[in-house]
Design goal:
By secondary structure, the protein is of the alpha+beta class. It contains nine helices and twelve strands. The radius of gyration is 19 Å and the shape is globular.
Length: 314
């Protein structure tokens, strides 16, 4: 009960409660009525984002994300959506030092031998979003964590019934659990998460996610100068002033090295006490449902996409 109440309070604090309720109401109302996937996405996003959504003729950032879900395909995206496959790709292009250590890979929780793991570590699944558990051998209820991980293994992240999305990159990933090193912050007690949006190798803008253990805060910045802009996206902005990290240029250079392989990709970093670590590569941020306030930024960031660069016959 306490966990549910805490989650409810978090939704209120981060200003996502009303969007969450609206999404659930829209899905229940229109999923059966609009059997055509395109019409359904247009209708539900028009409700959520407060403008006429048209993914057949994308203009905004969210329209392009949804357009990519329905009209594009790329095998490398599929490999890198797999959190373990992504590590293999990063090794291949010479970025191994930026990859968090993997302690073990498991087909189910029954294979996990806690005696072979350090006192603190992270357990994740490779095929979905959100199945991440920070573990401490002295305090973690492993029975509960293992139960949640095993349930995650049988879920299909592309399923309209489970997750209401069409993210084809996850469809053929063989579900696995893996244990990974626990990352620690660089200076403060807050492990900052830097997310860079890269288009045809050019880094255009990004997010800083902070306060993730309490009520998540998100600030949007322009990549060329780390200028925080007056834009809210999904979560509330942070209350404190964010300072450009000393290794910011190193992050940008890594983004360019990765970005040349993709027409679009979001590259996530953690700034740790052991240097930069790459969290993951993301291709459908918020699944194309993330509201920008004001809406003009949705249209402005949509201009960075070049539709002609995507081969929709793949």
């Amino acid at each position: 009960m306490e966990k549910r109440l805490s989650k409810f309070k978090k939704l209120i604090k981060t200003n996502t409660l009303f969007n969450y309720i609206a999404y659930k109401m829209c899905h229940k109302r229109w999923r059966k009525k609009y059997t055509n996937d395109i019409d359904y996405e247009n209708k539900i996003n028009s409700c959520l984002l407060k403008y006429k959504f048209d993914l057949r003729n994308p203009r905004t950032f969210n329209e392009y994300i949804c357009w990519l879900k329905h009209f594009y395909h790329n095998d490398l995206w599929c490999q890198c959506a797999d959190k373990l496959g992504c590590k293999d790709f990063l090794k291949e292009i010479g970025l191994e030092k930026y990859i968090p250590k993997t302690y073990g890979i498991y087909a189910s929780s029954k294979e996990i031998n806690l005696d072979k793991l350090p006192d603190k570590f992270v357990l994740k699944t490779n095929h979905d979003s959100g199945s991440v558990f920070v573990c401490d051998k002295n305090t973690t209820d492993f029975k509960d964590v293992f139960n949640k991980l095993d349930k995650a293994l049988i879920r299909k992240y592309t399923s309209i019934d489970d997750f209401h999305n069409y993210e084809w990159v996850y469809k053929n990933i063989e579900p696995k659990i893996f244990a990974e090193e626990l990352l620690y912050p660089n200076k403060s007690n807050d492990l900052l998460d830097y997310k860079f949006f890269t288009f045809n190798g050019d880094v255009k803008f990004g997010y800083v996610m902070s306060n993730r253990n309490k009520d998540v805060r998100l600030d949007v910045f322009m990549a060329d100068n780390f200028n925080i802009i007056k834009c809210q996206h999904v979560y509330l902005k942070s209350k404190s002033k964010l300072i450009k990290p000393s290794n910011y240029d190193e992050m940008i250079n890594i983004c360019k090295k990765i970005g040349k392989y993709f027409n679009f990709v979001r590259i996530d970093f953690y700034n740790t006490n052991n240097g930069i670590k790459i969290g993951e590569l993301t291709f459908f941020p918020t699944s194309g449902h993330g509201k920008f306030t004001p809406n003009e930024y949705d249209f402005e960031f949509g201009k960075y996409f070049d539709k002609s660069q995507f081969d929709t016959n793949k």
